[in-house]
C-alpha cells in the first residue's frame, strides 16, 4: 500500500506585485489568502517564518507579521509550537470564496468583472467582520472577550415564559407587530432605564431593534449624509469602526485616554462632524469612564454644531466597585442630541438579538419608518417574552446575580494573574465589564498572540482595536469561566509566553 502523501512544504510562492495605492501589508495578506482559497497553498502547507518571508520579498518583518496575524485571527492559518505556521484544514469562508478564486485562476481568459453598481460592495470586500468567526466557534476557549456566561441563564424560566406566550388565546403574537416595538417591552425598558441608567424617557421614544449595530447603521444613513465626518474612538469597538467605514462617511479617529474620549482633540480634528460614536460608561476596550468635564464638553460641542452623539451603553450594568454610573443621556442637555443604544445580547444571551435606541422626539418618526422599511420589526415573540421577563422582576434578579458572579471571577482572574504573569502581562484593576485590556510586557505582540493561540488560548490583540500605534496589549475575557478554569488557563498563558 503506497504511503500517504504528506502536505507539501511550501517555501515561497510568486505573489505578483502590489497594485498602486495598496499597502504592502494588505497586498501580502490578500495574496496569501488568495493562494490558500485557490488551492496553491493546500491544507497543512507550512509557511516560511516571517523573518524568511520578509527577507525573500524585501519587506519589513513587521509587515509580514501583521499579514500572518490577520490570517491567524481569521482562521486561515494556525500556529503550533514545534511545527510552525500552517494552512488550516477547514477554512472560514471556503464554500463562499474558493469557487470564485479558483475560477479566476483556472480561467484567466474570462471577461473581467463588471464594476459593482454600489461602492458598498467594494467597501464590504475590503473587510472581514472581526468577530464573525469567534461568535460561531463551538465551545468556549479562554480568554476570548465580549462574552457572558450562557450556562448561568435561567433557561427553564425562559421556556416557561415562551409557553405562556404560545397559548391559544395569545397567538396573535405570531403576527406582524408595531415596527417600533411591542408597547409592553418599550414600557418595560423605559422603567428599567429610569432606575438603572438614570434616563427618564417616555416609552414611545424607544425603538426596538435587533442589535446596536443596526441602530448605528440607521444613524449613519439618516444623520451622516454623503462624506460627512464621524468621530470614532481610538482605540474603539472594531464592529463600529468597520460599519462606519462601509457606510462611506469620513471616519475621524479621536484618541482615548484614562478619562475617555479626548473631546478637545475631536473638535480640533473635525469640529463639524455630524455624529460621534462613544462608549462613555465603560470605554470599549480600555474600560475607562468619560469624565464629567468631558461629558459636558461633548454635549456642548453637539449643541453648538447641531451634531449627534451615539451613546453605546457598552457593559454599563456590570460594574463591580460601585453602582453603575448614569448614562450620558441622563444629563439634561442630552435630550436633543444623544441617541442612547443598549442591547440584551450580553445581559441575557447573544441569540436573543434584541436591542433598543432612545431617540430625541424629532427623530422618532424617521427612524421608525426606516426600521420598518429595512427590517419590518424585531422578533415579536422574543419581545413579548422579554417584556414579561422584565415586568415580573426576573431581569433585575438575573443582572444582580450575574454581577456578583462576574465580580468573583474578575477577582479570581486578577489574583491568578498576579501569581503567574509577573513580567509577562500586567492586569490593571478590573472595575467593570466582561473583559479587561492588559498590558503585554513581552516584546512581540503578534508572536505572543500566535503562541497563545497554539496553546488553546483565545484573546484579541489590542492592535485590532486601534488605528494609531499603542503599547502592546491583549483584551482578555473572564466572565464565562469558573474560578478553577480561570486559574488553569492563566497557568497555560504563562507557560506559552515563557517558551
UniProtKB/TrEMBL annotation:
Provide the family line.
In the C-terminal section; belongs to the class-I pyridoxal-phosphate-dependent aminotransferase family.
The HTH gntR-type domain covers: 22-90
| Keywords from the UniProt entry | Aminotransferase, DNA-binding, Pyridoxal phosphate, Transcription, Transcription regulation, Transferase
The record's listing under Pfam families reads: Aminotran_1_2 (PF00155), GntR (PF00392)
Which PROSITE patterns does the record associate with it? HTH_GNTR (PS50949)
Which GO MF terms are attached to this record? DNA binding; DNA-binding transcription factor activity; pyridoxal phosphate binding; transaminase activity
Q: What is this protein called?
A: Aminotransferase class I/II-fold pyridoxal phosphate-dependent enzyme
Q: Which PANTHER family match?
A: HTH-TYPE TRANSCRIPTIONAL REGULATORY PROTEIN GABR
Superkingdom field:
Bacteria
**Which InterPro entries does this UniProt record tie to the protein?**
Aminotransferase_I/II_large, HTH_trans_reg/aminotransferase, PyrdxlP-dep_Trfase, PyrdxlP-dep_Trfase_major, Tscrpt_reg_HTH_GntR, WH-like_DNA-bd_sf, WH_DNA-bd_sf
